[in-house]
Design a protein that fits this description.
GO cellular component, one term: ribonucleoprotein complex
Distance between the termini: 28 Å
Order of helices and strands: HHHEHEEHEEEEHEEHEHHHEHEEHEEE
CATH class of the largest domain: Alpha Beta
Number of helices: 12
CATH architecture of the largest domain: 2-Layer Sandwich
Helix content: 25-40%
Radius of gyration: 24 Å
Pfam family, one: RRM_1
Family: Belongs to the RRM elav family.
Structural class: alpha+beta
Keywords: Repeat, RNA-binding
Number of domains: 3
Number of strands: 16
Strand order of the largest sheet: 2-3-1-6
CATH superfamily of the largest domain: RRM (RNA recognition motif) domain
InterPro entries: ELAD_HU_SF, Hud_Sxl_RNA, Nucleotide-bd_a/b_plait_sf, RBD_domain_sf, RRM_dom
Strand content: 15-25%
Length: 389
DNA sequence: TCATATT
């Protein structure tokens, strides 16, 4: 791919584009995402070669799978299978794609699988999309381990940890019992201090069992109190409970009504007008804001979402740059770089579809005028008219 | 006394 994450991150820091104060938080989120790059996740999940390290390959199929089949974790709750396919399809041809959902509620479980035709594309997807910020999440892209019963229910819940214990120290404590797939210490959202509870996911269930035997009711080195180690709650059971409790909720609390949405829109439009006041620069967005309030001729609205026109992309731009730029602002359902049929080079523009008006509006306000390389992007809702130069 | 990682 032509535009690397790190290039964009350095461009963001170059100072050529100064964000307005009100966009600071969003841009800070973007910078984090763009600077995170491909290698921000520290816990590896490569192909599980430990279990079949004999000289002759057990099964050529499973080894092939491990090179094309990816597991994608920490997906935004509202992301659909189609969006997952759209995102990963921008890298290469996909053999199959599955978003895992709760069997009962149908809710996304926040992870999925993408199987490429070409192992090179799988590798490229890890390098390109691992660490990508989507809404409030940072997705993780890694090779899927061959599916088997032995790797299920290998997740531990740990409580009573010393508040000073770091994630690294937690892993050190547990790593003697097996390969750790992922670990986490929960922190207070306000203070950021450890809540003394966390999770350890082992490669295999037997490793988790041994860790319980060895560490439950034991004091970690230097600790004054023993810790509790047990299997973590099964997430599917939890969603069933949520379903049950939902039955007892008043129905009108489940979805925000049109009034609430309109109120939100008013606040957002005021915010946008303020932003353009500060900029002292006319932008078509101000008109978009007003017309959408009046409910007439809504630009960019195509029923399926809000279509955004992105102009002045470089000839070597690709879809991933659009995901990187717009993903942090909210639900993106599709991106498209328009290319010349013969040269396959970008013709200088592309489109992004976002589900929610508010998020699309903030993305536009934030990214219009954004300098990408030596180009200043023009970002607006797509209009029906042909764009003139 | 628990966020969401094996189709």
């Amino acid at each position: 791919m032509a535009v690397r994450l790190c290039d964009v991150a350095s461009l963001l820091r170059s100072g050529s584009w100064a964000p307005e104060p009100w966009t600071g938080q969003v841009i800070a989120a973007m910078e984090t995402q763009l600077s995170n790059g491909p290698t921000c996740n520290n816990t590896s999940n490569g192909p599980s070669t430990m279990s079949n390290n004999c000289s002759s390959p057990v099964e050529s199929g499973s080894i092939e799978d491990s090179k094309t089949n990816l597991i994608v974790n920490y997906l935004p709750q509202n992301m659909t299978q189609e969006e997952l396919k759209s995102l990963f399809g921008s890298i290469g041809e996909i053999e199959s794609c599955k978003l895992v959902r709760d069997k009962i509620t149908g809710q996304s479980l926040g992870y999925g699988f993408v199987n490429y035709v070409d192992p090179k594309d799988a590798e490229k997807a890890i390098n390109t999309l691992n660490g990508l910020r989507l809404q409030t999440k940072t997705i993780k892209v890694s090779y899927a381990r061959p599916s088997s019963a032995s790797i299920r229910d290998a997740n531990l819940y740990v409580s009573g940890l010393p508040k000073t214990m770091t994630q690294k120290e937690l892993e050190q404590l547990f790593s003697q019992y097996g390969r750790i797939i992922t670990s986490r210490i929960l922190v207070d959202q306000v203070t950021g201090v450890s809540r003394g509870v966390g999770f350890i996911r082992f490669d295999r269930r037997v490793e988790a069992e041994e860790a319980i035997k060895g560490l439950n009711c034991q004091k970690p080195p230097g600790a004054t109190e023993p810790i509790t180690v047990k299997f973590a709650n099964n997430p599917s059971q939890k969603t069933s409970q949520a379903l049950l409790s939902q039955l007892y909720q008043s129905p009108n609390r489940r979805y925000p009504g049109p009034l609430a949405q309109q109120a939100q829109r008013f606040r957002l439009d005021n915010l946008l007008n303020m932003a353009y006041g500060v900029k002292s620069r006319f932008s078509p967005m101000a008109i978009d804001g007003v017309t959408s309030l009046a409910g007439i001729n809504i630009p960019g609205h195509a029923g399926t979402g809000w279509c955004i026109f992105v102009y002045n992309l470089a000839p070597d731009a690709d879809e991933s740059i659009l995901w990187q730029m717009f993903g942090p602002f909210g639900a993106v359902t599709n991106v498209k770089v328009i290319r010349d049929f013969n040269t396959n080079k970008c013709k200088g523009f592309g489109f992004v579809t976002m589900t929610n008006y508010d998020e699309a509006a903030v993305a536009i306000a934030s990214l219009n005028g954004y300098r990408l390389g030596d180009r200043v992007l023009q970002v607006s809702f797509k209009t029906n008219k042909t764009h003139k130069a």
